[in-house]
Amino acid sequence: MGTDYGYCRCSTNEKKQDIDRQIRDLKGLGIKQDNIFFEYEKGTKEHKPQLERLMNIVKPGDSISATEVSRLTRSTKQLCEIIEVAQDKKLMLRIGAFVVDCTKELDPMTQGMIMMWGVFAEMERNIIRSRVISGMENAKAKGKHCGRRPTTIEDLPNSFLRNYGRYK
Questions:
Q1: Cα first-last separation, the chain
Q2: Closest of 81, 102, 78, 105 to residue 92, by C-alpha
Q3: Which of 56, 96, 134, 142 is 20 to 30 A from residue 25's alpha carbon, by CA?
């Protein structure tokens, strides 16, 4: 039997999103803390360093668990690539309570189910993005400022101002 690994992901940093629920759920599946890879990257980002690191160290017979498809990726294309690697390396994928045996050829029903999850994860991301853009446009129409405020010299730390001359 191979090694069980887990993967967790949140889109923003640890100050804005808590990844602990995913870690707790993976530990509940018996995955050791040292075998849980996590990162704060957008789901559609092409390169996720920790996921790539995980995919490079797994060996045939190992398993990768994630709490849901959207934690692996929010891109159907990337999901297909992950499944292809899992099949090439003869891995087991556990997505929530659903186990996908990639040590053999996937049956059409399982493959279709996974692809539908990928489509829904991508669609969910697009809906969230659309709502955020709409909300920002609404706020701007009401005269509110959206985004990062311009930096002024008053905002800069004294240590920066003291050393700027030497840096320049």
A1: 58
A2: 102
A3: 56
User: Could you say which DSSP state residue 40 is in?
Assistant: E
Q: How far is Cα 69 from Cα 49, in angstroms, rounded to an integer?
A: 18
CB 64 within 8 A of CB 31: no
Task: Look at the block and give the residue holding tokens 């993967």.
Answer: 7
Cβ–Cβ under 8 Å, residues 89 and 119:
no
Q: What is the pTM of this model?
A: 0.73
d(CA 70, CA 92): 18
Contact in structure between 114 and 79 (CB atoms under 8 Å) = yes
Both tokens assigned to 66 = 């994630």
Q: In 3D, which of 63, 66, 62 has the Cα closest to residue 117?
A: 66
Token pair for residue 81? 């690539």
Gap between the Cα atoms of 136 and 74, Å rounded: 22
pLDDT over 80 (residue 25) = yes
Tokens of 13: 């940093």
**Tokens found for residue 108:** 């059409």
